Amino acid sequence: MSLDGSCLRSSPPPGWESGMNRESVLSVANIFNPAGASVANSLIADEYLKDARTTEEIRDAFTEMIGDMLMALPMVTVAGYLSGNLTKGDEKLCRTMMACWSNFAQTSSPNGPRLFSWPQNDRHKQEYMELGLMQTLKQNLKKERVHFATVVLPQQLEQSAAAANTGN
């Protein structure tokens, strides 16, 4: 897997449906972890890939690994810092979010009785829910960063590769 910006796009990299191998898992892990962390990346990959036998199983284990590294583990860590220091509003937000996640796991929708109405995804409206003590419907989450990751970065990488190929 080359560093062509495909890991930053909203769609999976080419060949994703066919699965992954250990080397492609490590190449992506090395993007997210700082330089010099290759030993840590190998240990993390070993943990998540230990039961994976096929390229599809490796891909699925990689998906879990990235989800844990980028979302689940940081959230658990923050929750540990917050325990015992929550306001009534924080506790209400926690209960609301647990209800949303539970509904989503059961029905594929976070909506439910006594919860805010979370809109269905519409790529043209680009709506998202800002979560806090008050939930707010907004549009175009990180619009400038998305443009950078999906348009500017691939162009810059292509230009850089072209310059390297011409020796400039």
From TrEMBL:
Region (Disordered): 1-20
Domain Carboxylesterase type B: from-to ranges: 86-148
Name of protein: Carboxylesterase type B domain-containing protein
Pfam families: COesterase
InterPro entries linked: AB_hydrolase_fold, CarbesteraseB, Neuroligin/BSAL
Gene3D superfamilies in the cross-refs: alpha/beta hydrolase
Family to which the UniProt record says this protein belongs: Belongs to the type-B carboxylesterase/lipase family.
Species this chain originates from: Eleginops maclovinus
